[in-house]
């Protein structure tokens, strides 16, 4: 059986106790992943700190050149990474390639770091006085990431952190660990000095130890809301900078004037792609007025037509969920919603064969009181709520504790503009079901979907991984007569 190793200080490092890594399509064990404990955590942080001492002084153009080389290697090894993702996560190969492409866009943004780190300069702010500002890296930064995007979500973090001059320790999900090690090898091939990027494998205990380590200056986290809240609290209490992205319950509002075929196509892809295991998946449709019945019929037809199978099979459109526990959770929510009065129009709970498969599920006439609505299912379950008016639909979204993403389907620019201004959500799509911002913007939600003040990647990512210095300078003339000291508070004269 293959044994995965940590990547610390530029070399593979064996671990101790290990957990199995499964193929969700078959249920068989692929490998064993080590559980990083105190010694491994300390070794990874120490290696990063030692590398940071010299990496922070590498000219910004030199860092950019390494990012350009890393970007090219990512493209060259796209198929290798996709196969690893599909084997351990289960998503279909095209979906795996898609996440690599979107992650690579963040690397392309980081390639512009010489422009992104430019400071400001003000001449003659007072007589003979100039002022300027610049940004410096923080030190050792840590990233703790979930299973659902083994490549893309880490790429939201470490390229920008490293380009800004930091060193980085990545703790990938123990369910999908192998892609992180290939990323480490690609960084080394791109010329990144040993220790600037490290991979520390493990479970929640490893993540907690990394968060608490005094040598870590900043923590970036993506995962469930309860864990995000704990990470934010623990990192903040120890004086670290922290951004922690939590869960979601993303709504798509369909107005009566919408193109229902377009809406049904887009919502189906957003609900069932990657078996619904996306923080930006559409999990709730709010059908407004007379759109409801014809929309539900279209959604049901499309859900029943989805081809479920192993992600490596070119005929598959949707793969398995990540684990037996995930499959059980999905089935339990569908059963409970049916008992509570929801209409189970498409039921994918009883798929035959090995692996952790559950098919698309569509539930109509769901209410906000049902557990299936209140909780994040994180599986291929689409709920339909019905609203009489657009205002009622917005009220439903604003009452939800999550505020990650939402979408509206309409032909009316006026209705869309009103929606985007009134809804309490951080990322909004207009006739776009998965409104993930491009890399040169920043990603992050509101309410219980984000803990911390800074979103990921884009301009806010640069600000998160650096801190500003402001410098005020005066260079007195050596020939000027010396003036007596003035004790009054200085002013710009």
Structure, explained:
The chain has about 500 residues and is of the alpha/beta class. The chain is about 40% helix and about 20% strand. It has helices spanning about 40-55, 60-75, 80-90, 95-110, 115, 150-165, 180-190, 205-210, 225-235, 260-270, 290-305, 325-340, 370-375, 390-400, 415-420, 460-465, and strands at about 1-5, 5-10, 10-15, 20, 30-35, 120-125, 130-135, 140-145, 165-170, 195-200, 220, 240-245, 250-255, 280-290, 345, 360-365, 380-385, 400-405, 405-410, 425-430, 445, 450, 465-475. The strands form 6 sheets. It has a 7-stranded mixed sheet, with helices on both faces. A 6-stranded mixed sheet has the order 10-9-8-11-12-22, with helices on both faces. Helix 2 (about 60-75) packs across helix 7 (about 180-190), helix 4 (about 95-110) runs parallel beside helix 6 and helix 10 packs across helix 11.
What is the overall shape? globular
Secondary structure tally, helices: 16
Unreliable sequence segments:
none
Task: Return Rg in Å.
Answer: 25 Å
Oligomer: single chain
Class inferred from helices and paired strands: alpha/beta
The side-by-side strand order for the widest beta sheet comes to 15-16-17-14-13-19-20
Binned strand content: 15-25%
Helical fraction equals: 25-40%
- How many beta-strand runs? 23
Mean pLDDT: 96
Tell me about the largest β-sheet.
7 strands, mixed
Distance between the termini: 74 Å
